[in-house]
Every structure is written in C-alpha cells, then in structure tokens.
Amino acid sequence: MSRHIVATVDEIAPGSSKLVTVKGREIAVFNVKGEFFALFNRCPHEGAPLCKGQVVSLVESDEPGTYRMSRQGELLRCPWHGWEFDIRTGQSYCDPANTWVRKFAVAVEPGERLAKGPYVAETFPVSVEQDYLVIEM
Amino acid sequence: MRLPLAGGIDCDVHIAPPSMRALLPHLDAYWREQMVNRGLDRVDFTLASARPRLPIAARPDSRGNGGELDTLRARLLDPLQLRTAICHALHGAIALHTEDMAAALCRAVNDWVAAEWLDREPRLRGSILLPLQNVELAVAEIERRAADQRFVQVLALAMVDQPLGRRHYWPVWAAAERHGLPLAIHAGSLFRHAPSATGWPSFHVEDHVLQAQAFDAQLASLIAEGAFQKFAALKVVLLESGLTWLPTFIWRMNKIWRGLRAEVPWVKQPPGDIIRDRVRVTLQPVDAPDDPQVLARTLDHIGAERMLLFSSDWPHWHDDRPDPIPDGVPDALARRMLLDNPAETYPRLSLPAARATEAAR
Amino acid sequence: MSTNTLERSAVAAKPKLSLVDCDIHPNLKSEAELFPFMERRWVEHAQQFGPNNHQGLAYTLQHPRFQPAVSRADAWPPGGGPPGSDLDFLRSHHLDAHGIAHGLLMLLRPTGCDERNLDFAAALCAAANDWQRECWVKPEPRLHGGIMIPQEDPAAAVKEIERCARTGGFAQVNFPPRALEPPGRRRYWSIYEAAVHHGFPVGLHVGGVPGHPTTGAGMPTYYLQEHHSNMPGMQAVVSSFVFEGVFERLPELRIVLIEGGFAWSPALCWRMDRAWRLMRAEVPQVPRPPSEYVRDHVYYTTQPIEEPDDPAHLGEIIDWIGHERIMFSTDYPHWDFDDPRYAFRTKLTEAQRAAIFGGNARALYRLP
Ligand code: FES
Fold first, then answer.
1. Is B36 part of a structural domain of the chain?
2. Which candidate in B161, B191, B209, B298 is best for mutational testing of the C interface (most C CBs within 10 A)?
C-alpha cells in the first residue's frame, strides 16, 4: 500500500470529476458537494468509462405521473447503457446487492503534512499552501 | 382428452356470441326498436378477428346436436371433470364506433350470458364484456354487473384503440380492481390500426401468428405506464396469448428498464418480477414445438410456476395433439395450473357455486 | 449473479479478436454534407421545402431519446461534430480499439425511405450512397456500405441497386423493417430480385416511420416501450417474408435483421410452424414449414444482446437457432452499444465464437 496524490482539491469542482491513473488503474474521482469519492473507471456491466457518465439526481415516484427528485448530484449514469450507480457506495441503484463499481478510499490532506512524505505523485509538485486528494492503494 | 386430476378449472372457454335476435329481449325499448327498424336484427356482428370460418375456430368434436350448452357439458365439462369453466362471448359490439349502441349491446350480451349460461349451468363463470370505446360507459357496465359474483373478470381485446396501460383507461381498471375482477385480455383486434409494426399483413395465418406481439406490447404498456403500481391488487390474465415469447420479453424488458428507469421511476422492480407476480397466462394454444424437452426448458426460462392457468380454449382448435396438457409440463405445474393458480388469480372463484348464485339475486 | 467481474479483466483490455462488426452508424456533420452529391434541383428542394414524412415532428422522432444524439457519451469526436461523423476518430476509438477487421455501415438518416415525395426520396438515397462511398469506404477499406433505396418506388430502387453495384463499395441493400407495407408484400419483390441478382443480402435495420403505430396494440407512450417494440417488429418482418412466399420464390435471398436481437426467433418459429400446420391451405406459396425458411434465409445481428439472469438460457437459445446465423454487432456509436469483450456472458465454444464474431459475416458478405 502506498499513498498516491492524485489531484489538488481545487481542481475538481463540486459536481465534476477527474480521471486519474494509479498503479496502472484508471480511477474516476468525483466531488459530491465538497466530499470526494473515487470509483474504478469501468462499469461492471460492459466496461464503459464511468468518468464520462452524467452525474444525476435520484428520481423516484410515489405514483405514476409524479416525479420526486432527491440526492442531487449523488448518482452516476453510465455513459453507455445508462445504469445508475450511487457515487458514495458504488452500488447499482437497480441491483445494489449484486452489482457495484469498486470504490477506493480518498482522503483530503494538507500539503504541509504531505510534504513530509512518503507519497507518490509523479505529476504533482506538492506545495504547502494547497490541499490534496490522496488515494491509498 | 384427459386431465391429471378431477375438479380442475378451465380459464378459457368460448361461447358463440348470440345473434341479435337472441339479444332483443335484453335490450331496452329504444334499442330494441332501433335494431328491428333498421334491420340490424338480421345483421351479423361477428368480429373480424374471431375468424369463424378458419380451421382453428372450432375443433372437430365441438359441433353437437343438443344445443351448445349440452355439447359443452358432454364434450368438455364432464369428460375433463371440471369444477369450473370461465367463459366469455366476444361480441362485435366492442368494435362499433357508436358508443351508446356498443354499451347497450354489451349490457345485453352480459345479461344474456347470465340468463342462458350461468343460470343453467352452475359450473360456468362469466366475463364482463366492456364497451371500452367510452371509459365512463365501461365503468358503468362494471358497476352494473359486478354484484353478480358469477362474473369473475372483465374482458378486453388485445388490440383496441390505444394500448391498455394508458391512463385513459385507468378508471376502468380502478373499477375492476375495486370489485376483485382481473383484467382478461383476449387475442384479437378491432383493426383500428394495422395489427403489426410492419403494417397490414396479407394472410389470416400472419394475423394469427402476430397476436403474440400485441400481447407483448400490452404488457410493455401496462408496465411502463405504472398500471401495476397504481392498481396494486389488479391481476391481468392473457387469453390465447401463447407463452413461449415470454422469456425474451422478460429479458429485454429487464435490460432496458435498467437503462431507462428514470423515464418511468414508478417502475420499482425489474419488469420480469412484476410480470411473474401479476400476470397470468392461459395454456392453450401452446406455441411450443413437439419436443417436450424444449417446452420444459422454455417454462423454466419463464419461471412460470405461478403464472400458468389451465385452459382448453374450447372450442378452438389450435392444436393437433389430443391432450390438453402437453408433455413437458411437469406434474406439479399441471396441478398448480388446474387448481392453485386460478384460485390465486380469481378472488371470486373461492365462493361456492350456490352462494355465488344467491349473491346474484 | 455478480456482474462485478470486469475489474479482473481490466488489464487484459487489449483486443485480440479480428472481428466483423455488422452495425456501425456513420453520421452526417450536417445535411449540407450531402449537397455535393445532389443535383441543384434537389439541393434547392431540400432547402426550400425539406422533408415530407409520416409523423408530427419534422426533424426528430416522436419518442424523445435518452442520451444526447442517441449515443455513448464517450463517442463525441474531440474535433467536433456529432458521434459517428469523424472517420479518424471512428478509426481510433472503435475500429482499432476493438480490432475490427470489417465494419458494415448503416446510415440512419436522412434515409429517403420515409420521404413521401418519391423523386426526392430517390435523390436523397443516391446522395447518401455516394457520400458513403466517397467519404467512408474509399478512404477506409475496412468499411462497407449499405445501399439506401427509395423502397416505395421499386423501379427507382432497382436502378439505384444497379448503380451502386457498378460503382462498388457496398455489401448489402438496406430496407426499412417498417415501410408502408409489410416487407414481404409483392410490390417490393423486384427489389429483392435485384439484390439477389447482384449478390447482395438485404439488411433490415430497426426503424422506419411509415405512419402506422410501432405495435399492433397502438402507439407506445414511453421511449422504453418504443425501444422494446423493435423486437416484436422484427418478428413481423420474418412472418411477412415467410408467408408471402418470398423465400420460396427466391432461394438465394438472404436477409439480415439488424439491431432486433435474436432470442425471440425460436418461439416465433414454433408459433409459425404450428399455425402453418393448421392453416397451410391459405398459403400454398409456402410448401415447407416456416422454420425451415427461417433457418435457410435469416441472419441476426446480436446487439442489443438479450441478457437473461442465467446466461446459460441464452446459450440454449443459440443452440436452438444455430450459431451459424448469428453475427456480432456493436451499434457504434449508439448508447446501447455492445462491447465485443463483454457482451456475451453465456459460454461459447471456440467454433461458435469464431462464427459469431466474424466467420458468419465474412461468408455472408463475401469479405476477405
Ligand atoms: S456498460 Fe455501463 S451500463 Fe452497460
């Protein structure tokens, strides 16, 4: 296990994502209202790159013809066949028990602390003024 | 013809629609005079899709000497030792564009069924023919007839003006649900539009084959519109739909639902689960090959234990095999489709015949 | 069933198959891309009058789709233009990435097949064919065109087939499953005769807006239903060809059903055979059981593939149909795309795999 600095906190605005590569694996890092989540960039269905998916709300209904929106920006719609995944857990909305995207822990750490190392960040000059996103893998 | 057990329930028995003359006593004064003055009492209102001349319309032994009811007793009810047979008369009234006339004729047909069949044969149960041309009139007919517990379902054709799941029809399904009446959809078309996605086919045999796709579209409609959510107690019975098309229907609907769920968020379960829970399918005509192994595999693909209802489809003749339950149907399933499944589908069947008759008075 | 299996194979993502993709959609950047291939008279017609079709909306379908441009979100060319409109990007993103040796082009619109003005329809089809040849097939020999025809004017359609056979670059004749009449009807026979004469299969890709509902039960409400209705629609195509006696008449005719899946075919055959046994006197032009014609004449592309909970069920269906009639397709760049590496969850034998992912299409389309 090593710690990988994958982005600065400012780089990923709320509602958006960044594709990073850690140990040869593509990982999509999402900012959901200031919280960060990292998902393996492959849909469990047929392998679509999830970073290209739309971030959407949860749509539910109490009765045909009515639409109830909640959890704005917390679901990810696969860019191919549209399966919905909970960004927080990686679970498929329709089949949470059997279908999920692998999730990685991501932490926000101040540059001051990181500068002491050890860490891996080929593309990041780490400065003490910034906060960084760190994936341990 | 043999069945594995006595006391079974046959869920699809046709009675020939009455002539207009036979209906006259059941019409009110206005419509009786109209029918006679316009010469309509001599007009044949047979539905085009009933195709009475086709070889499949009547099995060779269905034409007896002693009147239809006696034939039905002698050739079907007695030899199959049936406890109950659910019958219906598909009258051409449902094809008319004139709504009031359609409703008057449907009332007359339903009353004629009660007087000429249900009163005379306690093993029979009826289906309420609906004038779906007009939703209010269809609801009124359910309300009028529902007190008679011998009517156990409402009846619609597979191809009418609009797909049956549409909200337009919901007051009708609400009334059916309220009275514990499943919605039975019978093969056939009013030909309000082409009966297939490709347009108007040339031959009767094509129309016959294409019926399965109309049922496919009706299930898709009922699911997508949320009719099963809205009417949580409503059951849907498919009459003469065939069944081997169901696995692909389920696989494809389950798949597309996962991708398009947000379009119909009221659909909360995989469509296949809804179908297995709420839709019932009559056995005949069995659209499977002769190889019993393949039929058994297909039933397994469907997951059909609770879905199948036994039917003879009397007096239709879609099948050149003698046994009404073909090889390949496991014994346990045969038993379920003759007894348990109909009992679970039709709330009104649990009433003993005597009480049902009494309730009608 | 766990579908969370892709992770393990992620590193082995490099394609090894040398496959044939039987459904690739090229796209126009704009209608004007066709104008260089049209006479001035028709360019002006397009600009001054525009399409005259059979539905309420002029420029889009009446069941609005669920993804922008009906496409994979990752298929938009970086250089601009809609998905499928940039040959270089299609090469790198699709052909190279998946090791595709041959791709069958399927242009969806403007097709001319829904146009009510038959002369305009013919002009649109001819332009679309020249555009496919000049802009796609000539620069990229892995791609093969589909001849667009104005099927409601069969004489003009036959001429167009002959013209395209002369110019080269085409692998099949396209025919909409949803034309004004069912495809087996007599008015269209001369088209099939011309296809057979020139050695082309007839490819029927889901679609067509002929004015009648997409199901026998009426017009669906939701896109979910409309998408689903492609599958029963394909069954009506098959029963029309069979019962009109087209296959009996033209023993060399081969039809390819594109984007309608295939799992429904055995059940349709059982149903047709049973009905035929009882009613064959009506159709003396069909002396053999329908299933035999289907087996001899009908090919299926796989996408969007059926996905039973138990993948083995699909394996049984493939055995019932015969794997030599099933041909892999992706539908690139559309949203319901199938990935050749993951689309088949059911186990295939090596022979089945080779046939479905290339062998069948190579033989049918006579590809190298
Ligand atoms: S690849 Fe993501 S839903 Fe199919």
1. no
2. B209
Specify if A42 maps to a domain. yes
At residue C59, the pLDDT reads: 86
Please write the tens of the pLDDT for every residue from B165-200: 999 999 999 999 999 999 999 999 999 999 999 999
CATH number at residue A21: 2.102.10.10
Structural contact between residues C223 and C65, judged by C-beta atoms closer than 8 angstroms: yes
Q: Hey, what CATH topology would domain C19-365 get?
A: TIM Barrel (3.20.20)
Position A71: which residue type? R
Q: What is the DSSP string of C105-156?
A: E---SS-STT-SSHHHHHHHHHHHHHHHIIIIITT-TTEEEEE---TTSHHH
From chain C, pick out residues whose CB is under 8 angstroms from the CB of A21: none
CATH number at residue B56: 3.20.20.140
Residue A125 lies in a domain: no
Residue B240 CA to residue C266 CA, distance in Å, equals: 19
CA distance A25 to chain B (A): 26
**Structure-token pair, residue B258:** 């996962």
Count of the separate structural domains present in chain B? 1
A81 touches chain B (CB under 8 A): yes
How far, in Å, from the CA of C349 to the mean position of ligand 1?
Answer: 25
Q: How far is CA B72 from CA A23, A111, B8, B63, C270, in A?
A: 77, 89, 16, 9, 30
Beta strand A17-22 pairing with B279-282: unpaired
Chain C hits for B253, CB-CB cut-off 8 Å, are 228
Examine residue B279 and state whether it is found in any structural domain, yes or no: yes
> Chain B residues with CB inside 8 Å of C223's CB?
260, 263
The reported pLDDT for the residue numbered C338 is 96
Instruction: Return the partners of chain B (3 or more C-beta pairs < 8 Å).
Output: A, C
Alpha helices by DSSP H, B320-352: 331-335, 341-345
Q: Give domain status of residue A72, yes or no.
A: yes
**Does any domain span residue B238?**
yes
CA distance B119 to C83: 68
**Quick check: C263 and B247 CB within 8 A?**
yes
Which of these, A91, A100, A87, lies nearest to A38 by C-alpha position?
A87
Q: Kindly tell me the sign of the dihedral angle through the C-alpha atoms of C258, C260, C265, C269.
A: negative
Would you call C12 an interface residue with chain A, using a CB distance cutoff of 8 Å? no
Positions of E strands within chain C? 19-24, 100-105, 143-147, 170-174, 202-205, 255-258, 298-301, 326-327
Q: Is residue A48 part of a domain?
A: yes
Residue C2: its pLDDT value, please?
39
Indicate if the pLDDT at residue B359 is higher than 60.
Answer: no
CA distance to A75, C185, C318, per residue, from B7 (Å): 54, 49, 40
Any idea where the domains of chain C sit in the sequence? 19-365
Q: What is the mean pLDDT of residues A97-116?
A: 89
Q: What is the pLDDT of residue B108?
A: 98
Residue with tokens 């033989």: C363
